[in-house]
Structures are given as structure tokens and as C-alpha cells.
Automatic annotation (TrEMBL):
This is Oxidoreductase. The keyword Oxidoreductase applies. It comes from Streptomyces davaonensis (strain DSM 101723 / JCM 4913 / KCC S-0913 / 768). InterPro entries: FAD-bd_FR_type, Fe3_Rdtase_TM_dom, FNR_nucleotide-bd, MRET, OxRdtase_FAD/NAD-bd, Riboflavin_synthase-like_b-brl. One of its GO terms (molecular function) is oxidoreductase activity. Keywords: 2Fe-2S, FAD, Flavoprotein, Iron, Iron-sulfur, Membrane, Metal-binding, Oxidoreductase, Transmembrane, Transmembrane helix. It is a multi-pass membrane protein.
Amino acid sequence: MTTVQSPPAPPTAMRPRVVAGTGLYAVLAANAAVVTYFFVDVGFGASNALLVLGRLAGLYGALLMAFQLLLVARLPWLDRRIGMDRLTSWHRWTGFGILWTLLAHAVFITFGYADSSGLDPVNQLVDLAETVEGVLRAVAALVIILVVGAVSGRFARRRLAYETWHFIHLYTYLAVVLAFTHQVAVGTTFTASSAATAYWYALWGVALGSVLVGRLVLPLWRNWRHQLRVSAVVPESDNVVSIHITGRDLDRLPARAGQFFLWRFLTKDRWWQANPFSLSAAPDGRGLRLTAKAAGDGSAALRHLEPGTRVFAEGPYGAFTALHRTRPESLLIAGGVGVTPIRALLEELAGHAVVIYRVASDRDAVLYDELRELAHAKGAELHLVTGPVAPDRLAPAELIRMVPDIAERDVFLCGPPPMMNAVLGSLRALDVPKPQIHFERFSLAG
């Protein structure tokens, strides 16, 4: 696509993130109301309150599972408005909601039947698993969800390799299938009427269809259509390299400055490994460029890629784009290799811009010559801030000195997490309105 000069949204316009977020919450609330209606319409039909609570918890748990599939589907319309990092946060909290509702379902149902039969809860659960169709599958699904919930906690997540965590996480899809078949087998709420049955299958059809389209069909279609290949490998410094990529019909690829892709370079030893890298130049319809720092074996191997290597790219992802502008003027703050989406954004943004590039020393300022030429061409101000972490050179007093009208600008921020956290604190201290602050962390739902 040709580089788009993006003006800010009118002051009275609803922000895209608000529209998409409100829409998602409205969809969840509407479906919760429908589920409650069908549950009440069937009648409680239970011998005690525990069974009623257990069935209702199971229905809400199943609804949250369908909603979770929508969050992990990576649908472009949602992603470019909400952002993958925020969708991942919602995915995390929805996952814990599923865990607790399904656990409540199992406990209430087991104790409810135990109260009626006179059996102890353990023997009652064994009896249900042996005599009622679908219960054993439900137990297996709950065990999987408990394991996934345990490894998703912060304590375990910090100690597991990403590949291990992701492999365990994939079993959630098996849990979804097991839970769905259990619901079909014993879910009286959704077999009591043709309308309820049609609703249930439509709900899960949309949820599963979204995952199929977003995670499989769309990436396969785009890569078949665009036929991406490495055209050049350009070292930017001792540990940073730029990869130039060409392909077919790139003017039809809906990528914007600030977004990232999951890149797979189809070599014999790296085809299975996907890494998230931002575009370091605004898409122009002729080629794409990413710039990466060697932070592990995968990114270090990029330096040795050969021109002509096939590329499989999933995306574009991310809401760190000019779509969310609210002001005519901008401040772009980059730290280290976080300059890559900032450099691309500067190329696309219209209006006066100030760029602050924070690095430890001059030699760490990758793409600085490009950034300086681009800033000169667009009439932007560029500040290179160097030196050790302490004292904080992006403290409130320093920011207001460089950008006196900072509260009147959109602020785009990208860099290492400690730096981003410190700058966000400075922006709050300077009373920069939250809707004017734009940042995104590499984080993938599901």
C-alpha cells in the first residue's frame, strides 16, 4: 500500500478502541442475557439449590469459553482497534473466569447430587462419571483447564520457556471440544427447544469459525497471494540487522506503520520458529522491512538469511498506529530497538512531530541517520538522549523542557518495559490525557 498521511480523528468522534471494546462487552452481555432467558424458560427442575447454581455456572462457563475463542481468533477488525496486548490481557482474565465458573459448576453439581443421593462427594463424582454420558469428558476438560490455569499464573509463567507454556496452552482447544460434547450430551437447557438448540450451535459455530478464519484461513490466503521472499539483508550494527522483503500485490496487504508480523523464515533449521518483529518502514506497496536486534538464537540467525528465502508472515497485528490519533501534533518516544515502529510511524504521520530517541550511547542509536533525514524532510524535531539509566533523562522535568506543549500532543511510546513504565509515570505526572497516550507490548492471545 502507498504510505498514508493520517490526520487525527475529529474531536467528537468515538475512538476506535472504545467502539470495539464496547461492542465486545455488549456481545458478551447480550449472550449472557440469552443464556439466562433459556435457563429460566426451561425451569429449574432440580431437587436443590446447589444443582441450580451448578447448572447456571456451567452455562456461563461455556459462554465464556466461546467468548475466549473470539479473543484468540486474531480477527483483523478487533486487533487493529483494540491491540493484541489488550486482547491478551482480556484473554488472561477471561481464562480465569472460565476456570472459576467451571470449577464452581463441578463442585455445585457434585455436592448437589450427593445431597440427594446420600453418597459422599467423591463417590458421587465417580458414579456420575460412570453412569452419565459426557461427564467423564467434562472431568477431563476441567483437569486440562486447571493445568493450563496453573501454568498461566505469574509464578509458573516466569519459570517456563515460552515454547513449553505455549504447548501446554494448546490443550485448551481439546478442553473446549470435550466441554462442548459434554454440553450437547447432558445440557437440558439447550435441548429443551429448537430455538435454544439453534442458538447454541450458532454461538459455537461463530466462535470456532472465527478461530478457523483468523488463525488458519486468512494467514494461508495472504501468504499464497503475496509470495513473500527475502530480497536483502542489511546489517545496521554489530547486533542489529534489517531484512527487506518483497512479494506480489503488496499494495493490497492491509499493513500500517507501527504494526508487527509473526515472521517465519522458511529455512531448514528455522521454518518452525515464529518471531514478532515490527515494520521499521511504512509499507509503500513495493516492499516491507523489519529491523531486529539479536536477543536469542532465532533473531541472531537473521543475519545469515540468504536473499530469495521464502517467508511466511502472520499479520499484520497491533493497534499502535495512526488510526488512534486524537491530536494534530505528535510526540514519538523510542528506546533502543523500539525505534523500529517509531521510525515507521514518523514516515506516515501528518502534522508537526517531536521525536525523542533514548539510548545508552551514540553507537546504540540504530537507524539514527534515517531518522534524522526523515525528521528533516518532514520538519520534525529530533532529540537523541544518551547516558546511563540514572538519573532519569525522561523524567517529567526533562520531557517538559524538550516538549513544552506535551499535554496537547498524541504520544506514541515504544521501548524496553522498564523504560516504558518510567515514561508512562512521567506522562501521568504531566497530566497528559490517557486517550492521547499510545503504546503496545508484544503479547499474543492464545
